[in-house]
Amino acid sequence: MGKSAASGRVPVIVMGLGVIGQEIARAALAHDEVELVGAVDTSPALKGKGLADVIGQSAGGLKVQASLSAAVARRKNVVLLHATGSRLPQVKDQLLEAMSHGLHVVSTCEELAFPWFNHPEIAEQLERAAERAGVSVVGAGVNPGFVLDRLVATVGQVCGAVHHAKVTRTVDALTRREALQRKVGAGLSEEEFFRLVDQGRIGHVGLVESAALCALGLGLDCDDYEEELTPVFAEEDVKGGAFVVKKGQVAGMHQVAVALDDGQERVRLELTIALGADEPGDVIEIDGDPKLKVLIPGGIPGDRATANLVVNAAPRIATSQAGLLTVLELPAGR
Known about the structure:
Shape: globular
Number of domains: 2
Largest sheet: 7 strands, parallel
Number of strands: 13
CATH topology of the largest domain: Rossmann fold
Helix content: 25-40%
CATH architecture of the largest domain: 3-Layer(aba) Sandwich
Order of helices and strands: EHEHEHEHEHEHEHHHEEEEEHE
Distance between the termini: 16 Å
Strand content: 25-35%
CATH class of the largest domain: Alpha Beta
CATH superfamily of the largest domain: NAD(P)-binding Rossmann-like Domain
């Protein structure tokens, strides 16, 4: 059943010890259904370092390994908690290597949440590899993977016919790490913002994947998708973040993805991440039978919730059917 004979818990390895990977390691150490048995990061600065020194808490004497094979050793039925990148082509080989070792995979890679959308050939390759190895692979996280898709699909289960769904997520980037503040363009001019958008260096990866997942989960047959990204400007100097954003500079971004059926909008996802954003929170509105509106004041926290979602998925994925899955195929409960 994918559990360690010694502890009765599912053995897991964390790969990628950036901010999210460290959160995942902490969540795994605190979880009573999994046992953290290894950590992997290719950074030379971390090679051989004690995991406890990286995450700032006791980690059972685990050392950071530079390779996945060293971390796995002879262990069986292990789940890899993977957090190294957002773009599927960049992490594909890591996923294939994990499967070659017989590992199930739960990954934070945003494009893996619904890989058939942007990378159908890679998705097919991963599907075949997973089936050959008899393992399961899934992309999971808060966004994509929960707030804008799986949660909407769960709420929509109480509806009959669904005509339209709108989900709005607003995040005050002042409460988030500097890397995210930079990623949404804070402090840039409008010209700099759009130049980096064109280079793919600004914006949230996975919003269209969320739209596709949301439509699928609500039973909507959509044939076209559109996405737009625009800057949010500071109306006054914004302080309190990692740096000061002057009035008139970019404070963040507003990103929209829509799913259409024969030209008619069926799903609209709106994501605003900006320093000092007003009324942060998550709002789900479903035009169905019955009509529903769900509000989460303040919104679901990003990093900590992503870590918990990944770790909570590990015992579920270890007993799932082999193949490339979406979060919609995981059991709803823990």
